[in-house]
Design a protein that fits this description.
The chain is α+β, with helices and mostly antiparallel strands and 583 residues long. It contains 18 helices and 28 strands. Strands 11-15-16-23-20-19-17-18 form an eight-stranded mixed beta sheet. Strands 1, 2, 3, 7 and 8 form a five-stranded antiparallel beta sheet that branches. Strands 25-24-26-27-28 form a five-stranded mixed beta sheet, with helices on both faces. The structure holds zinc ion (2 copies).
Length: 583
């Protein structure tokens, strides 16, 4: 069977054939295969609407059944110009081909200028495993100076089951879109007045972020990390020393100079894209002895990286974000042990947040690298050893390590089969040398430490985006920014409602009294939209019995419970970090 890309591209020709049959005056652009499918650009004499797609689809199916053969021909440019004399875009393309000959493909009555490859015949294309998905406008060759063409997109797979799965994931992904959930749950927004790719955390979102931060930071400090803190800007020269101005330039915001305004300020400055150099300077501020190693510095450090505006996406692709960053310096002998404990810590945290399935990758030495072969071997083996000890399955990505060292990446999988990159653990032989970092070994000699960069959750912004999509907004109780709402039935129940609120709040739970002048059913609906784990309704009966009527997220009314019983229940739920799987 042909490769799926070949099938997709061949379908684009058949779609063009169908268009030629349905709309004979069409001028053809190009039609490549893309991720999951294909498209073709047409210059049509009329405009198309989504309602037209089934008709085109029907025509394609009809053509596929005819078992049309794809015939490749190499012809002279002169001949090609004759064939495509009515096709201005094709003529433009022919002009640009440097060779004397061009290759064309004939499939039935449709001829296209194309290098291929294609399927032998439409027999190889499953007529039930493709679908046309949308119509969009696209400038010829992407330039607004050119005319606007009609682009028709389609998706295609080898089997119908794959097509069904694609649409299932698409539908589920829409339901879980963290940008929509973030709005519904009132967590954050991105404001054009402030700038694209920069997150404004609302009170509930900031609370969620802080809950995550507190939890991981407490864990890191218990694991022997020390807290450091570094500024958001630093002299450009520092980034020259680290090499970022060479190999990371495209991801950095432009540097800024002050001397044009303030004469005495001679240096240029740079918004930080990484936390490493700052941490290194803290290391270098004293003479280090082997007794101090391993030294582990952690910082929830906010960094800024330039991303093209077209690639920005909610919380998961941003221009400013907070890494749960840490750097470890150790001796070569300590490297193995450090890797194992970092890897274990990563898995423990991911489990605490409820992730159960992982994809793990070990990336090894690329063609261009720094450091000695011996060190590469040793550290790659350490990473391998840590992975093997965990007994988890992993894949090796040969040659995909960073130039400065090998790395482990962990992706978590969600219930609809999507994988999200979170953890990265990287060994680095480069920066310690660039910054001439040293420690004094047992024999009083200067040595260079090995450095590990690690971010276990990756960036907090991205992590929260992933959490929202993973749980479809139904965050576990311990993470929910508002855990409990108290809803009094009437104003006469407000006094008791306040009492309940104070008692719940005294237990360290995040609670809100809903005493606005609105109906109970409206407040309940709002609570459900905002995915509040527990709504406590209090009326006459509850006041009299010192109880609450509990509505649990995903379950609805679970009855009247004495207040202290309810408090015991939720405290227990938080203690075991029980994951509420009601999505
Ligand atoms: Zn082709
Ligand atoms: Zn780093």
């Amino acid at each position: 069977m042909a490769k799926i890309e070949t099938i997709r591209h061949s379908l684009s020709h058949i779609m063009a054939y169908a268009i030629q049959e349905l709309f004979p005056d069409t001028c053809f652009g190009i039609g490549p295969a893309i991720e999951n499918g294909f498209y073709y650009d047409f210059d049509l004499k009329m405009s198309l609407a989504p309602e037209d797609l089934p008709k085109i689809e029907g025509k394609i199916k009809e053509l596929l059944k005819k078992e049309i053969v794809f015939k490749k021909k190499i012809i002279s440019k002169k001949e090609a110009k004759k064939i495509f004399k009515e096709q201005s875009y094709k003529l433009e393309l022919i002009e640009e081909i440097p060779e004397k000959t061009v290759s064309i493909y004939e499939s039935g009555e449709f001829v296209d200028l194309c290098a291929g490859p294609h399927v032998k015949s439409t027999k190889e294309i499953n007529p039930d495993a493709f679908k046309l998905t949308k119509i969009a406008g696209a400038y010829w060759r992407g330039s607004e100076k050119n005319s606007m063409l009609t682009r028709i997109y389609g998706v295609a797979f080898g089997e119908k089951e794959e097509l069904d799965k694609y649409f299932f994931i698409l539908k589920e992904s829409e339901k879980r879109d963290h940008r929509i959930l973030g709005q519904k749950m009132n967590l954050f927004h991105i404001d054009e007045n402030l700038g694209p790719g920069l997150i404004l955390w609302h009170p509930k979102g900031a609370t969620l972020k802080k809950t995550v931060e507190d939890y991981i930071l407490t864990t890191y400090l218990k694991e022997g990390y020390q807290l450091v803190n570094t500024p958001h800007i630093a002299k450009l020269n520092l980034w020259r020393t680290s090499g970022h101005t060479d190999f990371y330039k495209e991801s950095m915001f432009p540097s800024f100079h002050m001397r044009e305004i303030i004469q005495e300020e001679k240096d240029d400055y740079q918004l930080k894209p990484m936390n490493c150099p700052g941490h290194i300077l803290i290391y270098k501020n004293e003479v280090r002895s082997y007794r101090q190693l391993p030294l582990r510095y952690t910082e929830l450090g906010t960094v800024y990286r330039y991303e093209k505006s077209g690639t920005l996406h909610g919380l998961t692709r941003v221009r400013g974000f907070t890494q749960d960053d840490a750097h470890i310096w150790c001796t070569p002998e300590q490297l193995g042990g450090e890797i194992i404990s970092v890897f274990k810590l990563a898995l423990r945290l991911l489990r605490d947040f409820g992730f159960k399935e992982y994809e793990i990758y070990l990336s090894t030495k690329p063609k261009k690298y720094v450091g000695t072969l011996k060190n590469w071997q040793k550290s790659t083996n350490s990473l391998k050893y840590a992975l093997e000890k965990s007994k988890l399955k992993y894949q090796i990505d040969p040659g995909e390590g960073v130039f400065y060292g090998p790395k482990i990446d962990i992706k978590v999988k969600d219930s609809i089969g999507r994988a999200w990159q979170l953890t990265t653990i990287q060994v680095d032989f480069n920066l310690p040398e660039k910054f001439q970092m040293t420690y004094i070994d047992k024999n009083g000699r200067k040595q260079t430490p090995i450095m590990i960069h690690r971010a276990l959750l990756g960036s907090l912004e991205r992590f929260i985006g992933v959490l929202l999509e993973y749980y479809a907004g139904n965050l576990p109780l311990w993470l929910s920014p508002e855990q409990i709402w108290i809803v009094p039935v009437g104003s006469q129940h407000e006094k008791y409602a306040r009492l309940v609120r104070d008692q719940v709040s005294n237990e360290g739970l995040r609670v809100k009294l809903k005493d606005e002048n609105e109906t109970v059913s409206k407040k309940i609906r709002e609570g459900e939209i905002q995915k509040i784990p527990y709504l406590l309704v209090v009326g006459d009966k509850e006041v009299k019995e010192k109880s609450v009527r509990v509505r649990e997220r995903g379950k609805g009314d679970i009855g009247i419970i004495k207040l202290d019983k309810f408090l015991d229940k939720v405290k227990k739920e938080i203690e075991v970090k029980k994951i509420i799987n009601n999505y």
